[in-house]
């Protein structure tokens, strides 16, 4: 296959990642969120594999496999189990209403496009244009954490940010060195276990998983 | 070799304690391992002192003057904390705040935390540095929520989320840095090695690096506790068990600042401006102002001292940002003095809280009469932390301030206000706690004196006499960083 | 032959011995007090000796201690100026230490004596180190240790809330002052490179541009005046001195304030050296305001120690007047006049140390005996405490600047300095400065009035109080301490010439002129500054003359024994004369309240309780008076309010909502990226 | 020989002062009586009073302390001390350098200090009232007096009386505005210091008005005599001080007998004049309320300050 096509595939997948990010932003149902997160992971791992093929970097295959196993299979499974176990109610209310979030999201995309301009100029990689998308994904993940009131959604936002970062690494530099990739993956795993424990602690201490109740530590004015 | 021992010991210890951490002699094991770590640290220090900086393990590890003194400090404070936590946690168990299984967890995580911090300090690879930093966060998150009270869980959750987000920003910054570096050094692991980066820092692309520094400063700054990224810090410090508060504000903040300073050197090296320095100065001033004014109206003793940690990190950040030989020297000294003093204060605070069964300042009274040792150490510790001689923090603040009025006179009034406000706030609360009559509900406890005395005397001695090796390290570090 | 500076350094070490005693024989109270305070007294005596040597030889010696920062070891230096202050500190501390033996034993048993002894010694040692310091670091270390030690001494009775409040206020003010001083050192060190810049020698070398010199001077001036209690930085002083143990207040008011004067002189005359005249004018203005306001505030008090504290404000003002004049003269290159003014200031420094120490010791004795600080509850103690009363009288006369005692000499010298103002090139100053002299005269007269009140109300008349404690004469060691101080006051008043000739070495170094070279043709009996034609005062002759005439008249009238009939007080036929009808401190000060009332925030109420029978005879009349310092409301209240507001605002950042926290970091990123 | 001579002059002057003071006061009283159309008791009346008091016994309150007994002697001796310093009949007094004007004021202040203490000693309301008022008046007079003296000593270039007198007498006689104003101020101050109408009324015992009398109310016998005498000496000295400062011409510069006699004669003339001037003022004005005194003394202060300002502006 020629590079042209691969580049197009790459940017197409990038578009899908961003799309899934937006979808998550607008998704109300928690199961839907988990599914979308899985999809995002899937696109990401395919993309990584493609880039690995393009750049002939074999460690990228490994990281793509890692992504597949952790972010597509493991984490969604854990989340799903938790959702079932803790009987989390399906509907998630958001702080800001959906259309506004969309607007903000688009603004973020433009912003990150502007930001990554110097990188694009410098870079010679075929993936360089997708860096903007990666940064946008990170930002949208952060936005999601900000606007959702629920612990699980915040975690998903967090993981979406991780996805974005991973994507950024791939697109900007054909991925970090393997040791770093592994380390990051390990951290994500530990994080996953920790928030697993957390969900139980929270739901046992407070009656629900809503972050709303956790505002007691404050300077009482 | 010593280096490997230094790294492996805490890791192995955490593994062992993960299984036998609930036994009767577990704390002793904990102490023993920390002592082993400390001796290894000393050995490493001597090694560095003799033959300068070390690069081993296929350039994986890198030790220079800056990191070695922090390494020794880390291992030392972790050792004294382990000693302190022996009796402290025992009493916590007697009060039924923690169960046996959680003791196991506590010991394991404690050692893991030490391991993570040492890895941060010794890693040559900035990617590994990031990983270790994340590990340090993760290992302490569940320690903060050890008591499982609603507040503890809330604090831990905030700690987890905020630091997680912050650290992800840092990763993005690292990616950008890697991107800029690989242009010059070439692909693969080489481009992430600090030793290579510092050599080529002049040739790195300035725009990318300044872009990267934004994410790095927000990322690591969150862990340093710079305002307005600090909100997790008071909660985590006040709700966790006291030994953890001690190591968090005594060591973790230092390590995060260490990372930040490393990157600052890189960025300013490439931009040839004072860009990173200015940002750090700004963060420093804001942090110390906000923190000082927050101290004034604290009702919780541990919260108050965690705010003072924010203040001091602000001062140190400001000083590093200021640059110049005297300011940098002062900043290095300040990191050392602060972590010694602050951890000893937290030990004392732990005793105080256990005596009065509360962290509320309003309920703590008459320490001079009740337990002179605790009272006076708390008084002197607070005076030291507030920058009164004859304690070391005064010396470092003296250097920083005088350097500041030389270079940035316009900023000095803000520092002045901050320092005085912090002093007034601390003194007010502490004076209230130490004076007066002993309340009925306060019961006397057997305080762990050794760590406190050790720390305070170190702070006192180092104010008047800085041993030669330390001085040599500081000077080389100054050359490296200024 | 051991050199003075070695002596002093040794003495500083010697102050550790009493602290060791506390550890060793802490349980034996009496023994501990006796031994430890006598050791401190000896250590102080060493400094008296070394001080005299330093001033007399006029040599300057350096010592570099092996401790401190690696590239900045502690530099010590003893020159005549610091020698003079060592002498003053040592002498008063010597007297006070003797006094303390009795005083501290007289304190109630539950008081934390050990704490007192430990910090007492640290305090004195720190003051000595301040005078010896020759680089910024050790100076500030000693300065702050001094502040901290005195803080703990003020907090001696930490059970009482007023002690805590006073100590807190004092410590905060002291710390603000210290930081200001630190910054001024920073400015001066900024003009030479590296760590060596922090030594005073380097600062002397570095010739600052005027702008920076001014900054440094202003910083240090206000820093030091916060410690000296110059108005409006005086608020801590009348709070802290009353609540401290009296031997401590004697030291704080007598010598600790003087270290601030030392600092001002050191920085202006020794380190900066060249300055415009308006610096001096500023010092002069602050001095005058402090002097007048201080004495007026004092007049309004009826708490004995508070009154004395306000008098410290006044006297610091007088000292500043001398120094300010000297600065003005120096800036106009009039060395001999500068020398006169400087000596006047320094001499008053020493005098104030002595008589204020004496007065506080006396106050301590009285308060120990009566357990009462409110003068309006006292009276007639002269019959019960003859020794204390006579020593206290000496103090009163000295502080009221009456010949032939020492206070008068220094004020006389200051007046002489004022009279030299016409030789200044600036017309306006020529006109204004003599008005300052008028203010000084007013101060003197008011001080006299105030101490007539003090002595009259405490020692004369009859006991006014409700409770009648058994009042006994002070312990012997207290009496000795006070007697020595009183004698010193008299000697300083009668034989000023000798001491002033000694002090030439100081003025020679600082303003390059001697006084004795101008005077001295009359010899030790006549004090003739500048020129015997201008002015002359002979303490001995006045003293001897007055005493002689008294004696002669006495004997002439008692050639045949004069009969003295003792009768009850003539009550004008009104039968019910009670002690309550005596004038009290409040009523004595009434005319002054009427005249100078506009300066204070006065709240005065009189109300008659329900009357029965004839309306002219109310059953009971209540009188309420509250005199407040206006400065608190003018300056400090607003500042405190602002700080509280700021802290509330800072607290609002921590509102507990994690979303907002995330937004913070988000916004921070956006902001920083926008900065790019 | 020379020394003997000096000592002789010194003693002579002191004696003159001591014994002339009552006469001067008597003269003033006499003038006053005449001006008020009363028959006077003559110049010698004050001598009779003093003599009478000396022979009387001392009656003292039970709680009078040593201060009460010591004060009269001190008051008297300060008067004598000052008398030996002010150049009245001659300018070569060997004791004169031992005290300049400021010291003189100081010495008088000492005397006042002790009187005030003594008046508080018994613990009656009168005493306290007197002391409080006296000290208040003193604190207001002192600045005015000092400013007046400043003007003089700036003109004379010295604060020691000898040199002021020499400076004036040696120079040609000029009318200086500064000196004029200063002298007026000084006159007002003398009235206040000596406790004459309108500041104080020596011949009243009405508690609302009395100041000096209230202080010495408890005294009797020789003590009272000494105090009264001391007060007279003080009054006399203040007048002579004024003379020495403002019209010193004629005070003997050489110590031959002739010039001394002349100067004594001149002094007597000056005193007579000064006394009558004072009487004019006293009879012209009524006793002031206590808190009006601020205005009176304020005027004195203003005068002296004007004098000072004129010294700098016009000369």
Strand tally of chain D? 1
Global morphology of chain A: globular
What is the element string of chain A, with H for helices and E for strands? HHHHHHHH
Give the helix tally of chain A. 8
Question: How would you explain this protein's 3D organization?
Answer:
The complex is a heterotetramer of chains A (221), B (482), C (676) and D (315). Chain A has one domain (3-210). In chain A, 77% of the residues lie in helices and 0% in strands. Chain A has helices spanning 3-26, 30-55, 58-85, 98-115, 117-122, 130-147, 151-173, 178-205. The mean pLDDT of chain A is 86. Chain B is an all-alpha fold and 482 residues long. A two-stranded antiparallel ribbon of chain B has the order 1-2. The two termini of chain B are 31 Å apart. The mean pLDDT of chain B is 91. In chain C, helix 2 runs antiparallel to helix 5 and helix 10 packs across helix 13. Helices cover 68% and strands 5% of the residues of chain C. Chain C is built from 26 helices and 5 strands. The model of chain C has no long low-confidence stretch (mean pLDDT 90). At the C-D interface, helix 17, helix 18, helix 22, strand 3 and helix 24 of C face strand 1, helix 3, helix 4, helix 5 and helix 9 of D.
Task: Sum up the structure in keywords.
heterotetramer; A: 221 residues; mainly alpha; C: 676 residues; 4 domains; two-stranded antiparallel ribbon
Draw up the topology in text:
The complex is a heterotetramer of chains A (221), B (482), C (676) and D (315).
Chain B: H1 2-20, H2 26-51, E1 54-56, E2 61-63, H3 65-94, H4 100-122, H5 126-144, H6 150-185, H7 194-200, H8 206-224, H9 232-239, H10 242-271, H11 275-295, H12 301-322, H13 325-356, H14 367-370, H15 372-385, H16 392-407, H17 412-434, H18 449-464, H19 468-481
Antiparallel strand pairs in B: 1-2
Helix pairs in contact in B: 1-2, 1-4, 2-3, 3-4, 3-10, 3-13, 3-19, 4-5, 4-10, 5-6, 5-10, 6-8, 6-9, 8-10, 9-10, 9-12, 10-12, 10-13, 11-12, 11-17, 12-13, 12-17, 13-15, 13-16, 13-18, 13-19, 15-17, 15-18, 16-18
Chain C: H1 4-14, H2 16-24, H3 29-57, E1 61-69, E2 72-78, H4 80-106, H5 113-132, H6 136-154, H7 161-189, H8 200-205, H9 210-228, H10 237-243, H11 246-272, H12 277-300, H13 304-331, H14 335-370, H15 381-384, H16 386-399, H17 406-419, H18 427-459, H19 476-494, H20 496-502, H21 504-511, H22 539-557, E3 564-567, H23 585-588, H24 590-596, E4 601-608, E5 621-628, H25 630-652, H26 658-675
Antiparallel strand pairs in C: 1-2, 4-5
Helix pairs in contact in C: 1-3, 1-5, 2-3, 2-5, 3-4, 3-5, 4-5, 4-11, 4-14, 4-19, 5-6, 5-11, 6-7, 6-11, 7-9, 7-10, 9-11, 10-11, 10-13, 11-13, 11-14, 12-13, 12-18, 13-14, 13-17, 13-18, 14-16, 14-17, 14-19, 14-21, 16-18, 16-19, 17-18, 17-19
Chain D: H1 2-35, H2 45-55, E1 58-61, H3 66-83, H4 101-121, H5 125-156, H6 161-170, H7 177-193, H8 212-215, H9 221-246, H10 257-284, H11 293-314
Helix pairs in contact in D: 1-3, 1-9, 1-10, 2-9, 3-4, 3-9, 4-5, 5-6, 5-7, 5-11, 7-9, 7-11
